[in-house]
Specification:
The complex is a heterodimer of chains A (336) and B (159). With 336 residues, chain A is mostly beta strands. Chain A has one helix at 2-18, and strands at 20-21, 38-51, 57-70, 75-90, 94-96, 101-114, 117-125, 156-167, 172-182, 194-205, 210-219, 226-238, 241-252, 257-269, 276-287, 291-305, 308-317, 327-335. The chains are: A mainly beta (336), B alpha/beta (159). Chain B: Keywords: Signal.
Chain lengths: 336, 159
């Protein structure tokens, strides 16, 4: 494992020397040569957590580096290497890096086959719902993640996918179909263990605002090995209010309900200053081995710049999850 | 759970209100290089290109879309007519795409720069004031001041 980590770090370090840092809002120059096609970006966040039933902590949550390459050919490369919790502070241990971990989040090659068909091979996020595909801290309104988007289905796989977009009259239809071809090689002890995943997603609307997801997978350590899942998601705006929702329902091999989850979130501009938003979220969640949980969230987020967010939130409800503790959370996130 | 799903379905039917801006009276020409084999382009296809959902022409060439600056009146007109939103409301979308390694269209600062770029760069596409067009590039779509589109050059009346 150490050897793999060293390889991951050294390969990215070498590539860092070859590429140019870009920003989301900055247009890129056209590539002139093979090496000019490399681009480096990423995101980071840091915050404090004051849980209701355990001690407070502060941490750099992650430093994520995104490296891409594209030239004039039909090939495109993408990778994301994440350093999780590189530095944490709590009252018992003061500063430490015990929770630090390096994770190769994504690593894939895309090949454009035709107008509407692209092929992807490697490690990628499963295109299931919205949050899972855009989970980077500067892209979401809250520090905590809805439980339904992380504990019901595999969030990433090693496999192949075909995807594309087809233009309709005034909107577009986006599709993706994927299958796992290589078992996850690096499962941590707290992580849910899924395998033999396959699924599909279609999304449609002005900017693909409504999504339908189908998925089938096996999960270890549960009574039924094989699950099927249906998911629905949407994103819309009413006046200046952003409304986002996702819902998932799982069934086991005998078509019995075997877990579900959903959330509804709003982001409402606040009159207290420029780019302050009030955030509300309600969640419901149930897994076969964890019972039913509910969550509510009330927060305020300041969009300092389009790629910089300061988030403050209170979360309540039943039960605790590592990614969604009840209590107070504050964080700052930046896309670079 | 059922109640929450019902709320999800009801709220998903809410519509996005149309953004407002000071309408420009210029006719816009969507241009490509003279050697690009396409003769016209559908609005739906143009939309996919400028949202960076379609990145290759059907003949296999990578597409290089060009934008004018966010406050340029032509950009506002193009963005509102074709993409259905104004540039200042699109940052969430572009940040999301950036997370997947896709950059927004390249920005050039004048019609002349856009024409030269399209002339010299294979696979590029841009939009300019139709009355500034000459034979260095070819137009494949016209966008009228009212937002309607045409593939017929007869819509153009320059002084």
């Amino acid at each position: 494992m150490r050897l793999i980590n060293k390889f991951r770090i050294s390969s990215v370090a070498v590539l860092l020397l070859l590429c140019k840092i870009t920003y989301a809002e900055e247009a890129s120059d056209l590539q002139k040569g093979v090496l000019d096609g490399f681009r480096l970006g990423g995101y980071t966040s840091a915050g404090i957590t004051v849980p209701r039933e355990s001690e407070a902590s502060a941490a750099i949550n992650e430093i994520s580096l995104i490296l891409t390459w594209e030239g004039e050919s039909r090939l495109r490369f993408f990778s994301e290497l994440e350093l999780e919790k590189p530095l944490t502070w709590d009252d018992d241990n003061k500063f430490h890096s015990k929770q630090s971990n390096i994770d190769l989040e994504r690593f894939y090659l895309d090949y454009n086959l035709s107008d509407n068909i692209n092929l992807r091979g490697g490690r990628f996020l499963t295109p299931t719902g919205r949050w899972n595909q855009l989970h980077a801290s500067p892209l979401v309104w809250t520090s905590s993640r809805p439980i339904a988007t992380s504990r019901l289905f595999p969030t990433a796989i090693n496999g192949v996918m075909t995807f594309g977009a087809i233009s309709l009259d005034k909107s577009a239809l986006e599709y993706s179909i994927y299958i796992e071809t290589l078992k996850d090689q690096d499962v941590s002890k707290d992580e849910l263990n899924f395998k033999n995943t396959k699924g599909a997603r279609i999304a449609f609307g002005q900017q693909a605002n409504i999504g339908v997801n189908l998925m089938s997978f096996e999960e270890k350590n549960t009574t039924s090995a094989r699950y099927h899942m249906l998911g629905l998601d949407f994103l819309t705006h009413y006046r200046d209010i952003e409304i986002l929702g996702e819902a998932f329902q799982r069934w086991d091999a005998h078509n019995n309900s075997s877990g579900y989850g959903a959330y509804l979130q709003t982001a409402i501009p606040l009159p207290i200053g420029t780019n302050w938003y009030g955030i509300t979220r309600v969640e419901t969640f149930q897994r076969p081995d964890e019972g039913h949980q509910q969550r509510w969230l009330l927060g305020a987020t300041w969009r300092i710049k389009p790629a910089q967010l300061l988030k403050l939130e209170f979360t309540g409800g039943s039960g605790d999850q590592p990614e969604s503790p009840r209590g107070f959370l504050a964080s700052f996130a930046v896309l670079f | 759970m059922r109640l929450l799903i019902a709320i999800l379905l009801v709220t998903s039917s809410l519509c996005l209100p149309a953004p407002s801006y000071a309408a420009d009276k210029t006719v816009i020409a969507v241009i490509v290089a003279n050697d690009n084999p396409i003769k016209s382009i559908a609005v739906g296809e143009l939309k996919l290109i400028y949202w960076r959902k379609k990145t290759y022409w059907s003949h296999g060439q990578r597409i290089h879309p060009i934008n004018l600056p966010p406050d340029n009146p032509l950009r506002l007109h193009f963005s509102n007519s074709i993409l259905g939103s104004l540039p200042n409301t699109q940052s969430d979308y572009w940040n999301g795409l950036y997370f997947h390694g896709v950059s927004p269209p390249h920005v050039l600062y004048s019609d002349e720069a856009a024409i030269r770029y399209v002339q010299e760069t294979a696979g590029s596409i841009a939009y300019v004031d139709a009355c500034k067009l000459d034979n260095r590039v070819k137009a494949v779509l016209w966008i009228l001041p009212n937002g309607e589109t045409s593939t017929d050059a007869a819509v153009l009346k320059c002084n």
